[in-house]
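Request from the bench team (R.T.):
"We need a structural guess for the complex before ordering more 2-acetamido-2-deoxy-beta-D-glucopyranose. Sequence and SMILES attached. Just send the tokens back."

Command: build protein-2-acetamido-2-deoxy-beta-D-glucopyranose structure.
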Amino acid sequence: MKMLSYLLVAIPLFMVQKGFGLGENGNIEELSAMVESHIVAAENYVLPKDNAKLIKVDPYKIVGYYGTFDFIIIGAGTSGSVIANRLSEIGNWTVLLLEAGGHADDFSKILGLSSYLSYSDFNWGYNSTEQQNACLGRINQQCFLTQGRGLGGSTILNGAFYARGHPEDYNRWESVYGNPGWSYDKLLPYFKKSEHAVFYPRDKKFHGVYGPFTISQVNSTPGLVRIKINEMKVV
Ligand SMILES: *[C@@H]1O[C@H](CO)[C@@H](O)[C@H](O)[C@H]1NC(C)=O
Ligand SMILES: *[C@@H]1O[C@H](CO)[C@@H](O)[C@H](O)[C@H]1NC(C)=O
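Reply to R.T.: structure attached below.
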């Protein structure tokens, strides 16, 4: 499956790295209108009480149209996308990747405004359970848990932050839940394998450079800056 190109575009970090142009073919008015319409939509968005409305498939209409597959992956979020991509490297394996949401548009590339997307159908709208010592300022002490719904999953919503878990969390998984192979030391080679780290200085003991997943420091938003510069020239 030619999934790689599909999936990589779903990762905002990659987009920033490649400098995908915001409104490259448009102009500043179009861009402002697009931004404004998303902000207005977010401000008027009603968080779902029951996110079944976000699943648009009618179970009675599912037919065997797509054939049979060696693997069916539910969710084209960060991990589903990576798993589908890796499995599809074996040419004679067939892989079906299912995703309830769609493609996020240019608005999701403006990282500083990504919190508005939490108030849209790109977020499943979950809350945490009631917390004892956290979320003190929230109704019922339940935090808002943004979980992306769309190609790229939560990378649509999280402002392109990249953070590896704390080593002790992985070590705990291994020891407490009996998951041999899930300690930080055993996972580190895979973290490195996935990474194309382009920040400096970088410690090669912890970061990889040959993987598909570009990690960089935050750049400015190149397309927007270009439009601004053009606009200034006109003025
Ligand atoms: C989550 O909490 C917010 C208010 O804090 C509420 O508007 C929303 O309906 C809740 N969502 C669910 C699924 O209960
Ligand atoms: C895939 O192809 C290889 C080599 O052509 C073959 O050995 C293998 O059995 C095939 N696997 C499947 C699942 O068809």
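Two things stood out. Confidence is low (pLDDT under 50) at residues 1-23. Helices lie at 4-9, 12-18, 28-43, 78-87, 167-177, 184-194, 222-234.
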